[in-house]
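Propose amino acids for all 454 sites.
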């Protein structure tokens, strides 16, 4: 019997896997914080004999090199990947014995498209394919985006994605489980994925890469691509060089005086508390990236790369969780940190700043007032409809475009509230009067706000 355990990286929208048998296992696309993989292996009582990468990742820092070093496992990396460290180069058709006692073997399948060197791995039990780890190739209902390597290669890689999907569908039985790394909220996915599990057979009838001709597929794929998170530019080089071991020890603690000094010199001080608590009271000048939101994606996307960041958390546990999320995207060491509440982070006698939260119904009630409606959703979201007269600046662009927000009280909204809270904190730190609309966008229709579409 074999097992496959999933390590969910919810904040990044990715999954890693540990698959094995009675005594040994293979780790697939492991995250940088490898203690999770080690814990799963310990629970099964197996050693990690192999660590494999489907590709050089563009959206997170891998833990593969460190995991192989710790465990002594063979580190399998596609041969076409240009890396600066020793590894076992893998080419199409190469095999590896994972757990001979359980008759588990792994076969490399060249599936270029997400990257030129992308490789999927089919897990065989007694010679029968049972699982295929597809990385950023075949996802649930879609494929990985082809535009992260080199703009001039995008169309070529999109066509390769179509061909790779068809190869997997032709070479593997319908009942083979498909286990991708991307597609659960990751911006490496070319389109949103739906569902938690799939097979080759299901994808044959549901995945556009397998249901439409290549020209239609490529046209639709390239038309639907979202903006690329800015931090992706740093992930590929870090992974090709070989990431350093991580350090999750607590950062130095800052008092109110140091927090004020860091704000005064323009450093980023990030409040990790939930958006309700932040709106009710916070240190003026701080930014709100909820620890329970997609902090790794949005903070890494928006902060100038390499800029020192100080984290403010309500507890040591919240701080530690945020550190773990951030090291996955290369934000290795906070400059400082503090725990508690705004009264602990402010000089004696200084009151916290605050701003109101609201709903679309309340916005409709103020529709005759002099105000600015700021929509911080992505272009693709806005294309489905927007409030007439609203200003549109995606949240990941807002920090560099604050000067484009017209004067007046700014009512800022997104699709659900989290990104509006980030935007509201940026505006508040810039001295603007702001109202955060903490509401689902469907409520804009229910509130009879005037909507339009392009």
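Proposal:
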């Amino acid at each position: 019997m074999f097992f496959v355990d999933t390590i969910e990286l919810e904040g990044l929208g990715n999954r890693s896997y540990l698959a094995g048998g009675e005594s040994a296992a293979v780790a697939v696309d492991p995250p940088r914080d490898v203690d999770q993989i080690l814990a799963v292996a310990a629970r099964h009582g197996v050693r990690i004999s192999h660590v494999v990468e489907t590709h050089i990742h563009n959206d997170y820092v891998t833990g593969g090199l460190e995991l192989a070093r710790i465990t002594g496992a063979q580190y399998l990396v596609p041969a076409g990947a240009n890396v600066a460290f020793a590894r076992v180069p893998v080419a199409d058709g190469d095999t590896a014995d994972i757990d001979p006692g359980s008759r588990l073997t792994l076969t490399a399948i060249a599936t270029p498209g997400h990257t030129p060197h992308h490789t999927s791995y089919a897990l065989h039990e007694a010679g029968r394919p049972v699982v295929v780890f597809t990385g950023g190739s075949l996802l649930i209902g879609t494929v990985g985006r082809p535009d992260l390597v080199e703009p001039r290669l995008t169309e070529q890689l999109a066509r390769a994605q179509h061909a790779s999907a068809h190869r997997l569908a032709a070479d593997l039985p319908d009942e083979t489980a498909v286990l991708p790394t991307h597609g659960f909220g990751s911006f490496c996915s070319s389109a949103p994925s739906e569902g938690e599990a799939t097979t080759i057979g299901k994808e044959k009838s549901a995945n556009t890469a397998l249901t439409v001709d290549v020209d239609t597929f490529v046209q639709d794929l390239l038309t639907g691509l979202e903006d690329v998170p800015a931090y992706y530019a740093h992930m590929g080089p870090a992974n090709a060089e070989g990431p350093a071991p991580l350090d999750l020890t607590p950062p130095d603690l800052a008092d109110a005086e140091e927090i004020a000094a860091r704000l005064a010199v323009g450093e980023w001080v990030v409040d990790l508390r939930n958006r309700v608590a932040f709106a009710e009271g916070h240190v003026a000048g701080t930014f709100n990236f909820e620890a329970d939101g997609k902090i790794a994606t949005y903070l890494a996307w928006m902060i100038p790369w390499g800029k020192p960041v100080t984290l403010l958390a309500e507890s040591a546990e919240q701080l530690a969780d945020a550190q773990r999320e951030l090291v996955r995207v290369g934000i290795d060491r906070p400059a400082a940190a503090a725990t508690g509440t705004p009264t602990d982070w402010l000089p004696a006698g200084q009151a916290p700043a605050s701003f109101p939260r609201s709903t679309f119904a309340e916005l409709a009630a103020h529709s005759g007032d002099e105000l600015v409606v700021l929509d911080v959703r992505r272009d693709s979201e806005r294309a489905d409809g927007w409030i007439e007269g609203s200003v549109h600046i995606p949240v990941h662009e807002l920090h560099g475009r604050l000067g484009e927000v017209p004067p007046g009280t700014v009512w800022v909204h997104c699709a659900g509230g989290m990104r509006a809270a980030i935007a509201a904190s940026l505006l508040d730190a810039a001295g603007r009067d702001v109202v955060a609309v903490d509401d689902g966008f469907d409520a804009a229709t229910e509130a009879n706000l005037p909507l339009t579409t392009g």
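The chain has three domains: 3-241, 256-345, 357-452. Residues 256-345 form a domain with the Oxidized Rhodanese; domain 1 fold (CATH 3.40.250.10).
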